[in-house]
C-alpha cells in the first residue's frame, strides 16, 4: 500500500492552512530538532507533532503508538503530512502510516532543509529555505 502523494513545502503549508484538522508530523530525530530547528507549531494552531522515525538505536518500534499519542486515529480520515530532513524518511513514515490505516498521508518533498547543495551544505531547499514558519527548538 502506498501513500497519498508528495507535496512541495509550500503545498504542504497551504494544505495545513486549508484543512484545520490536518496534522504535520516531523519524523526527524531529537538531535535534529534541537540543532536545526522545527516547524513552528504555533503558526499551525498547535497542529504539529514530533515523532522520531529512527532513534539513535535504530527504527522506532513505537512509531505507530506515538502517532496515536499525537491524536491520530486509524481509519478517521484525518490528513497527515510527514516531514523529515530531505524527504526520504518521511516517505517511509507515510507508507507505514497508510498501511496502518492513518491518513491520507503525504510526504513533504525536500523536507525541512533539503539535500546537500554544491557547497556541501544543506539548507538551500525545503521548509526553512522556502520561508515557512519555523523556530529554533
UniProtKB/TrEMBL annotation:
Source species, domain of life: Bacteria
InterPro entries: Rhodanese-like_dom (IPR001763), Rhodanese-like_dom_sf (IPR036873)
Lineage of origin: Bacteria, Bacillati, Actinomycetota, Actinomycetes, Micrococcales
Name under which the protein is recorded: Rhodanese domain protein
Location of the Rhodanese domain: 18-121
Amino acid at each position: 500500500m502506498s501513500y497519498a502523494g508528495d507535496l512541495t513545502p509550500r503545498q504542504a503549508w497551504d494544505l495545513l492552512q486549508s484543512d484545520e484538522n490536518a496534522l504535520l508530523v516531523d519524523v526527524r530525530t531529537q538531535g535534529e530538532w534541537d540543532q536545526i530547528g522545527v516547524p513552528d507549531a504555533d503558526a499551525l494552531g498547535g497542529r504539529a507533532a514530533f515523532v522520531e522515525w529512527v532513534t539513535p538505536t535504530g527504527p522506532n518500534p513505537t512509531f505507530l503508538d506515538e502517532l496515536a499519542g499525537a491524536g491520530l486515529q486509524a481509519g478517521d480520515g484525518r490528513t497527515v503530512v510527514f516531514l523529515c530532513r530531505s524527504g526520504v524518511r518521511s516517505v517511509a513514515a507515510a507508507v507505514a502510516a497508510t498501511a496502518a490505516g492513518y491518513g491520507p498521508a503525504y510526504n513533504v518533498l525536500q523536507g525541512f532543509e533539503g539535500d546537500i547543495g554544491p557547497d556541501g551544505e544543506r539548507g538551500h531547499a525545503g521548509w526553512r529555505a522556502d520561508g515557512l514558519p519555523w523556530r529554533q527548538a
